[in-house]
Specification:
alpha+beta; Endonuclease, Chain A; 4 domains; 13 helices; 47% helix
Length: 345
């Protein structure tokens, strides 16, 4: 981690050892780090030149020279401030360089509103770059099969989510069927995924400030050309399209159901109470309630009615299982159903 401040792995290990164990002789530090005495002394000298450690004479003639760490907040804070200054300077250079690029590319006339990309490799590279550079939000339409970059080739969304970026993905039914494993892996990393009956295009929106989408509608030529849109008005319209489609879409389960979950869904759709379902499955009513709650969480449903609708619509169960418990007052039933146990449509 401290390597980002310019420290080598050896520097970091030795500094951490001194922080953890207090003032040490070079011999003791070498023993704790598992390195040679001469090599340890060279690293100590390097750390002293960087202001990270200091040396003082030990007590007694045989104690030797003791090395102690500088306070991390002081020493590392100074290094961090230096690097932050360098990053601010670099950001200024990037802005200046980007202006030169847009001017030389003939984009200044449109205010940098659009940028045309040519070829699969260029599109894939920019797609990953945009994801990795996200600061707060990723919005994506995944329509059909990947044409520029596959899930295995794309670490960009995972890198962004690891930094706390919220990622929402809308997939078409054919995309869901083509890459279920990749989608489940995405959910395991924190991605929110919903399924839409139909999507108008492929799309990536980053931080609501720029968007990437195909320039051509022909499915066979989607990878030929793409456009990056910077114009705020167009990006806002694309965000609105995403949000409207998201609101009409169905959440995707975080993982597939086991046989027990499928049985619970089928019996619930048949109108059985939790107690009756538990009797059928040889489980407790509390276990049944936990399974239903888990399915509701994975499907993004707030009521059992919604869960039943999603289950039917997604084909998780084909038909409700009839049984005498569905009739109030019979052997498997326990009286009238409450709103929580009402059958889904």
């Amino acid at each position: 981690m401290l390597g980002r401040l310019g420290m080598s792995p050896e520097d970091e290990e030795l500094y951490r050892t001194l922080v953890a164990h207090g003032p040490l002789t070079a011999a003791d530090a070498a023993r704790l780090c598992g390195t040679g005495r001469e090599r340890t002394e060279r690293v100590l000298v390097s750390l002293r030149e960087s202001g990270l450690v200091s040396a003082r004479t030990g007590l007694g003639d045989s104690a030797g020279e003791l090395w102690e760490p500088a306070p991390p907040a002081l020493a590392l804070g100074a290094l961090l401030a230096i690097h932050q200054d360098e990053l601010r300077s670099l950001a200024g250079e990037i802005t200046e360089l980007d202006g030169t690029y847009r001017e030389s590319s003939g984009l200044r006339g449109e205010g940098g509103a659009i940028e045309i990309l040519h070829g699969r490799d260029t599109i894939a590279h920019r797609f990953i770059q945009m994801q990795q550079g996200a600061r707060s939000e990723l919005l994506c339409f995944s329509k059909g099969l990947p044409v520029a970059v596959t899930g295995e080739e794309n670490p960009g969304d995972r890198i962004a989510m690891a930094r706390g970026v919220r990622a929402r993905l809308l997939v078409s039914k054919d995309a869901l069927e083509a890459m279920p494993d990749n989608l489940h892996e995405g959910i395991s990393h924190g991605m929110e995924i919903r399924v839409a009956d139909e999507l108008p295009t492929k799309l990536l929106v980053v931080d609501r400030r720029m968007a990437l989408l195909p320039l051509l509608a022909d499915p066979a030529r989607l990878h030929d050309r793409a456009v990056i849109v910077h114009a705020s008005g167009i990006v806002a319209a694309l965000v609105g399209l995403f949000e409207q489609t998201w609101a009409r879409s169905r959440p995707m389960l975080a993982e597939w159901r086991g046989e027990d979950d499928t049985a619970v869904l089928g019996l619930m759709l048949g109108g059985l109470t939790d107690e009756a379902i538990a009797q059928r499955l040889g489980a407790s009513a509390r276990t049944v309630q936990r399974r239903i709650k888990r399915l509701m969480d994975r499907a993004g449903a707030t009521t059992r009615f919604q869960l039943g609708w999603y289950a039917r619509d997604m084909g998780w169960v084909t038909a409700p299982e009839p049984g005498p418990a569905a009739v109030p007052g019979t052997a498997g039933g326990s009286g009238p159903r409450s709103a929580d146990t009402a059958p889904a449509p």
